[in-house]
Design a protein that fits this description.
7 strands, Rossmann fold, single chain, alpha/beta, seven-stranded parallel sheet, 10 helices
Length: 301
C-alpha cells in the first residue's frame, strides 16, 4: 500500500513538473490578471484571454516585460475570447496545442455579477450571468478536456465563488449560475474518474468576496452586502492559492476554509437561516460600510 502511494505521488510530481502551458479566461484585469501573473511566476507559458483584446494584451505584455517586475521575462500570449462562444473556446484550445505542443492548465475565471431582487431583474441580466458564469465555464472545461483526455493529463480550475455553495440573498441569479458551475465541475471530475482518467483533475475554487472591479462599484449596494460579510480578499491572495492548487490539485478549494462549513449551514437548515437572516444581513451591511471607510481612507487593501 505504501509503495503504491509513493508511485502515485511520483506520477503526480512528474505530471506537475511537465505542466507548463496555461490558459486563463477573463485575464484582462482583476483576479484573472493576478492568476495569469502568478502562473507565469511558477513557470507556465500563459495564454491571457479576455473579451476585451486590449486588456488581454496588456496583461500578456506585463508578464513578458522584464522591467515590469511581475513575472520577469515570462512567456505570455494574448487572445480574444468570449467564453459564451463554444466554438471559440475549442479553437483556442486547439491553437494552444498546435503552438505549444500541449495544454496543461485551463483556468475558467471569466464572470459577471449583477445584484438585486430576483423578481426585479430582467431576462437579459439573468441570461448574461448564466451564459458567462455557467455556460462559459462549461464551454472552457469541455474545450480543455477535449485536448487533455487524449493526452492523459491536465488540470481545469473553475473559479466559482462561495455563492456556489450557498443561496446568497441579493445575488440570487448570480448564486444560481455559480451553483450550476459547481455541479458541472464536480460532476465532470466524477465522470472522469468513472471513465478511468486519473491523470486529469478538475477543481472548483470558492473564494469569499474579492476586491476587484466586480465589487468596486458596490460599496453602497445593500444587495451586495453578502459579498462583504466575511473576509474580503485581494486578487493576489486568491491567485497565490490557485498557483498552489496548480501544483497540488484537489476537488474543492474554499477561501478562507472556515467560511464553507459556516455558510453551508444556511442551506442545510433553511428555516434556521430564515430566522437568522435579518441579523446576518445587518452584520453584512455593517461590514460593508466598514470596508468602505477603510478603502476610501486608503487603509485597505
Amino acid at each position: 500500500m505504501v509503495a503504491r502511494r509513493r508511485r502515485a505521488a511520483k506520477r503526480r510530481r512528474d505530471m506537475v513538473a511537465r505542466m507548463r502551458t496555461a490558459v486563463v479566461t477573463g485575464a484582462g484585469g482583476g483576479l484573472g490578471r493576478a492568476i495569469a501573473i502568478e502562473l507565469a511566476r511558477r513557470g507556465f507559458a500563459v495564454w491571457a484571454t479576455d473579451v476585451d483584446p486590449g486588456a488581454a494584451e496588456r496583461t500578456a505584455a506585463e508578464i513578458a516585460d522584464p522591467a515590469a517586475g511581475q513575472a520577469p521575462g515570462g512567456e505570455a500570449r494574448a487572445s480574444t475570447l468570449d467564453v459564451r462562444d463554444e466554438a471559440a473556446c475549442r479553437t483556442l484550445a486547439g491553437d494552444v496545442v498546435a503552438k505549444a505542443g500541449g495544454l496543461d492548465l485551463w483556468v475558467n475565471n471569466a464572470g459577471v455579477l449583477s445584484t438585486g431582487m430576483a423578481w426585479e431583474q430582467d431576462g437579459g441580466t439573468r441570461g448574461a450571468m448564466l451564459s458567462i458564469n455557467a455556460a462559459g465555464t462549461m464551454n472552457g472545461t469541455v474545450a480543455a478536456l477535449e485536448r487533455m483526455v487524449p493526452a492523459g493529463r491536465g488540470h481545469v480550475v473553475n473559479v466559482i465563488s462561495l455563492a456556489g455553495i450557498v443561496a446568497a440573498p441579493g445575488e440570487v441569479a448570480y448564486a444560481a449560475s455559480k451553483h450550476a458551475a459547481m455541479a458541472f465541475t464536480l460532476g465532470t471530475l466524477f465522470d472522469l474518474r468513472r471513465a478511468g482518467h486519473r491523470g486529469i483533475d478538475v477543481s472548483a475554487v470558492c473564494p469569499d468576496g474579492i476586491w476587484t472591479p466586480m465589487l468596486e462599484d458596490k460599496l453602497d449596494d445593500p444587495d451586495a452586502a453578502g459579498s462583504f460579510s466575511g473576509h474580503l480578499l485581494t486578487p493576489g491572495q486568491v491567485a497565490t492559492e490557485i498557483g498552489k492548487l496548480s501544483e497540488h490539485p484537489r476537488p474543492i478549494l474554499i477561501l478562507p476554509r472556515w467560511r464553507g462549513p459556516l455558510l453551508r449551514t444556511f442551506d442545510l437548515f433553511p428555516r434556521l437561516g430564515l430566522r437568522l437572516l435579518p441579523a446576518v444581513m445587518w452584520d453584512a451591511r455593517r461590514r460593508q460600510r466598514r470596508y468602505k471607510r477603510l478603502i476610501e481612507s486608503g487603509r485597505w487593501p
